[in-house]
Amino acid sequence: MLRSISKHSAELAQCVVDAGSLESLVECLSEFEPSVKEGAAWTLAYISRHNESLAQSVVDTNNAVQQLILCLHEPELSLKRISASALSEIAKHNISLAQNIVDNGGINYLVPLIQHPDNKLVRQVCSALAQIAKHSVDLAENIVEAEIFPKILSLLKKDKDLIVKKNAATLIREIAKHTPELARLIVNCGGDSVIIEYITETSGNIRLPGIMALGYIAAFSDTLALAIIVHQGILPLKDSLINEGEDYIRAASAWSLGQIGRHTPDHAKALAQADILSKLIEVYQDGSSSQDLKNKSQRALKAVLSKCTHLIALQPLLINYGTDDLSCKILKYIVQQFAKVLPNDSQNRKGFVQSGALQKVQELNHLYKQNHDKSQQEESAVDKEEENQENVNYADMLQYIATINSCFPPELVQYYSPNYSQQLLNKLDDYEAQS
Fold it and tell me: pTM value?
C-alpha cells in the first residue's frame, strides 16, 4: 500500500514520510521474509526518486543506505535488483547523497555485480554506478579504482540486452567527462574502439550515451581525438547526424564531431575528407531542424573551419553555398578561412581559380557591395541595432574578399567579376564610336 501511494507524486511520498513510516520500512529490510524486504526496498526507492529532500529523508533514517547495500548480498534476484534501483534513485540527486553510498561501501558491493548473468540486475547496477560517477572526479575515480575496467567494456561488446549496453555506455560517459586522465584511461583500455563499435551497431536513443562519451573523450586533447579518428569513429557519428530521427541525438553527434575536429588542421582535414562539413551545413540550413541542433551545428562548423587548411575540401562548400542569406555566419566562417590560408598557400591558388571558387568570391563581392551600400543609405530607426550588426558583417566580408583578391593578379580578379563581360561590351561600343 505504501509503495503504491509513494510512486505517484512527491506530495504523496511526503505524506508517507510525514506519517513516520521510514524507520519501520528500514526495519523491514532486516526481516527474514524476502517479500517483506522487497516491498520495503521498493517503497524506499519510490520515495527517493521524486526529489532531493525526500531522498535525504531516506538517507537520514538509521542505517537505511547500509541495509540497502546489505540487500545486494541476499540470494533473491528480485531483492538485489530493487536494492540497486533504490541506491540509483538516491545517488542521482546530489554529490552528498552519492558520497553517503560510497562511504558505506556501496561501490565494492555494486562493481562485482556487473558480471552477474541476470540482465535486469546488471541494468540497475550500471545505472546506480553512473548516478554516483556523474557528480565529481573523486566519485568517478572511486569507481575506477574498484577495477570497473575492462569489465564494463565487455558489456558493450558481448551483452545482447540493449538497456544493459545503454546503461554501461552511460557509466563510461559519466567517468570520461571529468578529467583527461580518466578519458585517457578509457582509451588505453581500448574503450574508444568498443564505444565506436557499439554506436555503429545500435540506433536511436540507445546510442546517445556512446555518442556523447566520444565527444567528452575527444574534447580533452588532440591525441585522444586522434585515437577516435584512427579507430574510424567519424563514420558512425556522421551516420547519426544524417539518419537519426530525433534532433537531440543529431545535436549530440554534431557536438561530438566538433570536439574531434577542433584541435589541429589534421583533425579538421579528417572531418572535411569525410564530408562532415557539408552535412553540418545541410543540417544548419534545414528549416525543420531544432534550434539546439542548429546551434550545435554552427558551433561545430566554426570550431572545425577555423582549423581547416585543406582548401580542396573547403572549395565545394564555398561554391555550393547559397546566397539567399548574406548575413549567414557559416558563409562568413568559410570566406574568412580562405582569407587566412590563401596568402600563405601559393600552391593551391591555381586550383582555387580552376574550381570556380574565385568566380564565386567575385559574385559574393558584388552582392555584398550592393547590400552594404543599400544598408548605409537606409536610415531607419527600426531594428537599428540589427542593421548595424549586418553592416559590420558586410564590412568584414568585404575585407576578407579583398584579402583573397590580393592573392591574385588584378586582371584575373576583373575577369571573373560578374559585370566584366558588360564592361568589355561597353569598351567595344566606345571603340566603334571612335572609329
Answer: 0.85
